Amino acid sequence: MVKNGLKVEKLNLWFADKHILKDISFSIPDKKITAVIGPSGCGKTTLLRCFNRMNDMADNLRIKGKIILDDYNIYEEKVELSSLRMKVGMVFQKPNPFPKSIYENVAFGLHIKGIKDRSKVLGIIEKSLKDAWLWEEVKDRLSSSAMELSGGQQQRLCIARALATNPEVILFDEPTSALDPQATAKIEELIVELKNSVTVVQVTHNIGQAARISDYTAFLYLGELVEFGTTEKLFTVPQDKRTEEYLEGKFG
């Protein structure tokens, strides 16, 4: 099947009576980096969590509209959430390795998928850690606790854990906000490399980061999609005054 990325169609979301996302429609291209920017409280993370239905755990949630992945709406009742989250991985703001060994962190999703052959599991773990630029640093201590790793290493481990299930999409929610500049630079380089194999959607408050690494940018304001387009065009010739003012730091 030809992959076409993600397509959002007239997406609306409410928590109780609060209308958080308002009639959002846009298409996220396959194997590109799409940044989602906007001021705090505009709905960025809520939108990101729609792509793997992480919001489903919230009380009083109501959603209308569609998100299309591989020609089906992920909000259909028949969709199995565990399978969806294998296809659409997520890396959070703060590194969140499990309090287990490095090996068990990366193998976690493989166990859920029912892959038990140890040599196959080890092969996938090695590839995932290599793809996350972590293998050389940890190959001799896979049985050590993930909690012993530095913050940047922990975040790359979380990326390896997401990669192990062979996802089509990886969601990043402010993945460098808790890291120092050196670790941030490494994660940025890694994300750029990842788009060769997966579609990347990243929420960031860091406008400079969006400009540096994304191919496309979506600007959200008060729950509405104000503007979406190539990063180069949106940053140099924004079509909406609100986008221009946000990029100039006049609010946010």
Mean pLDDT: 95
Number of domains: 1
Quick one: CATH superfamily? Answer: P-loop containing nucleotide triphosphate hydrolases
CATH architecture: 3-Layer(aba) Sandwich
Helix content: 25-40%
Low-confidence stretches: none
Named CATH topology: Rossmann fold
Strand order within the widest beta sheet = 6-7-8-3-9-10
Strand content: 25-35%
Which structural category do the helix and sheet elements fall into? Answer: alpha/beta
Shape: globular
The ordered string of helix (H) and strand (E) elements is EEEHEEHEHHHHEHEHEEHH
How far is the N terminus from the C terminus?
41 Å
Count of individual helical segments? 10
Explain what you see.
- The chain has 252 residues and is α/β, with parallel strands linked by helices.
- Helix content is 36%, strand content 25%.
- It has helices spanning 44-50, 81-87, 102-112, 118-131, 135-138, 151-163, 181-194, 207-213, 231-236, 241-247; strands at 6-15, 18-28, 33-37, 61-69, 72-73, 88-91, 169-173, 199-203, 216-221, 224-230.
- The strands form two sheets. A six-stranded mixed β-sheet has the order 6-7-8-3-9-10, with helices on both faces. A four-stranded antiparallel β-sheet has the order 2-1-4-5, with helices on one face.
- Strand 4 (61-69) and strand 5 (72-73) form a beta hairpin.
- The protein is globular, with a radius of gyration of 18 Å.
